[in-house]
Amino acid sequence: MTAAERVAGGGSPAVAIARRFGILVVSVAVASVVVFAFMAVLPGDPAQVALGVNATPELVERTRQEFGLDRPLVAQYLDWVGGVLTGDFGTSYVTKEAIGPQLLDRLGVTLWLVGAGMLVALLIAVPTGIVAAVRHRRPSGVVVSAASQVGVAVPAFLAAIILVQVFAVQLGWLPSGGWTPPAYDAGAWLRGLILPAVSLGLVQGAVLTRYVRSAVLDVQREDFLRTARAKGLRPYPALVRHGLRNAAVPVVTVLGVQLATLLVGAVVIERVFVLPGLGSMLLDSVAARDLLAVQGIVLVLVVGVLLVNFLVDVLYTVLDPRLRRS
Amino acid sequence: MATRRSALSALVSATVLAAPLALAGCTAGSTAMVGAGPSTLAVGLTAEPQNFDFTTTDGAAIPQALLYNVYETLVKVDSDGEITAGLAESWDVSDDRTVYDFHLREATFSNGEPFTASDVKFSIERVQQDWTISLKSGMDVVERVEVVGDHHARVVLRRPSNSWLRAMTTRIGAMFDPAGVADLANDPVGTGPYDVASRRRGDSVVLTRNAEYSTPENPRPRPGYRTVVLKYYADATALNNALLSGGIDVISGVTAPDSVPQFEADNRFRVLQGTTNGEVVLAYNNRRAPLDDVRVRKALTYAIDRKALLEAAWGGRGKLIGSMVPPTDPWFEDLSGAYPYDPDRARRLLREAGHESLRLDLRVANLPYAVSSAQVIASHLKKVGVTVDIEPLDFPAVWLQQVFTDADYDMSIVQHVEPQDITTFGDPGFYWGYDSDRVQRLLTEADTAPPREYIADMRKVARTLSDAAAANWLFLFPNIVVAKKEVRGLHANQVSESFDLTGLRRQGTS
């Protein structure tokens, strides 16, 4: 038994996970109230926006009643939450369609984007971070490290604009935007996904590279790695065999935070590349004061972020047995 | 080696953290799509229709996509502003100008139902009964519709109305089939050459040829493109890039004037520049002091150099106008010289009105043309001692509430795109706060007058508004269309509510 375990007083991993799940549920409940409250104070009347510039006051009032906006806020909230719990996100004021299926459709696009962005980030960060750490005293390591600093400073949308200018407008290799569903044409889908994923992943990859580098550096200073080297293992095999699992714990933490950042970054990237994801739906819905849709989208995003944090917590306990009891 | 396996699996599990979630994305491909090819045209537009029902949802986006293309009207307006035949091959007007006899052509709705005079009756009465958008008031003047024969519909007006036939060229004149209005928001049914094949929210609407449009028994000239993809780009740069990289064939209206020269310099493209119905108006709150004083309004109008403003705000593209009339309206006359730039005169007028210095708010729509115009206005007005507080408001939501509905503003800038919207100055409740008996009387007289007097009366209205400096018409928004060279049949002027696809074809085809 380690010191940490003795202090924590013991407990099974299942209990730890259950407790974290409890926190997740409470957070989601609080978030739903906050999201609803925000919408309630947003200036602009959804009925007026839906009806346009020449609507009569009587018509606006009638539409408000149709939308249910004249009822007390608490009743509106309970109605909404009750619906969401049964999977019914309501019917949009603007599109007059059920919001749930729209959300699912848009969520698909965003998840592809975030997933592909994450993949790009990891493909960049893991190898370059390890190289930068192992060679941290050599010129090549310093160059990688410096390049990652520059990458961190470039916002995703700027990367996007530059990439579009070079690869779509000048070279014409890839489309400048638009979305083709993978089921319709996988080739076109992939071509359309490359630039957005790279824009999103490049910056995150640069950030992540620095964490991978410092995590690997820390691990390299550990006694067990020195022992492994002393046994005669060369640097990379020693690291792969004894170091990576230990280095993974801090990296996974950052990865969790970054996944949330990616979701937010996707909102901007979707705009630049005209992808019909949650982000563009959010912006359009806010502009049209389609409050039910906005509430639904924000709730999904919040739940997504909370869920990622929960999964990261769970993942710790898998990676590092010492954290199971804390 | 247990350690090695776990180390790898840890990293792999980190890598795929997002991937299982991503699998959910497979659902995002249910809509049918149509492939590109020589018979397909991709048009880039900015405002996406939120649904397809323009009978209950206002805004320019739905008629832009559907009018004339999917829904047809009895009469159309051409790119010079002339009223021409649509579903009515011809029409007769009675001597007292209250009875219109429309002689209808053969046509079929996309659901297979024939178009007849009873559909005319149904459609017009439906505007009066079921439509909710305010434009429906254009149909108030109709007393009744009679079905004289299968192809002969008679419309009886309560009084003569010059504006009514013109209103019939807009969305309120669209012809519907009684069996085709069950789900207007998602499934439009019209007689037009195109039918909505699919839509992808946040991305595109796909139109394909309506099989019922032209049959051997009833041949009609078909549009040149089998399929038209209307692609929506909220971002001006993304729209330009799509054309530059070959993603689309036409930009329906350039929204970033700075980008026009790069298209003009590129021999792959053709640029057409014409007029719209969109007057960019600096509204004065006529009801609120000090702007209720005509001297103050005139002073502000003299103090703004509109030519310089157009140059700075919109790259000099656009047309200077002096009243609420675009050049394609029959009563247009050039009043743009009525208030030449004259800061001295502005200062004098302000002094006369008792204002050595003034502080006014300028609540503008947060749109590029409005915000950049506001900055120019603030700097010009500063020179005559008027301090301007610019406040960009979220458009449409917040602008509609504060400026349009509550009229809580001194000055505002927004583009008014509705055809013949000069009539808004006859409504004292409109946010201009302009209440003039003369204008109200002239507008009423004009509508019922014989055609020639109609034009003369409307000119008087336009001049009266200019004389009273009821607003400051900054410029007329340009219509800038950019297209690949091979796309033919585009028009420079945007006069109707429709982006009319019916005359477009690829070069070398007929």
TrEMBL record, chain A:
It is a multi-pass membrane protein. It is found in: Cell membrane. The keyword Amino-acid biosynthesis does not apply. InterPro entries: BPD_transp_1_N, MetI-like, MetI-like_sf. Belongs to the binding-protein-dependent transport system permease family. It comes from the Bacteria. Residues 107-312 form the ABC transmembrane type-1 domain. The chain crosses the membrane at residues 21-42, 111-134, 146-168, 188-212, 247-273, 293-319. This is ABC transporter permease. Its main location: membrane. Keywords: Cell membrane, Membrane, Transmembrane, Transmembrane helix, Transport. The keyword Iron does not apply.
From TrEMBL, chain B:
It comes from the Bacteria. The keyword Signal applies. InterPro entries: Peptide/Ni-bd (IPR030678), SBP_5 (IPR039424), SBP_5_dom (IPR000914). Keywords: Signal. Pfam families: SBP_bac_5. PROSITE patterns: PROKAR_LIPOPROTEIN. Residues 1-24 form the signal peptide. Residues 82-416 form the Solute-binding protein family domain. PANTHER family: D,D-DIPEPTIDE-BINDING PERIPLASMIC PROTEIN DDPA-RELATED, PERIPLASMIC BINDING COMPONENT OF ABC TRANSPORTER. This is ABC transporter substrate-binding protein.
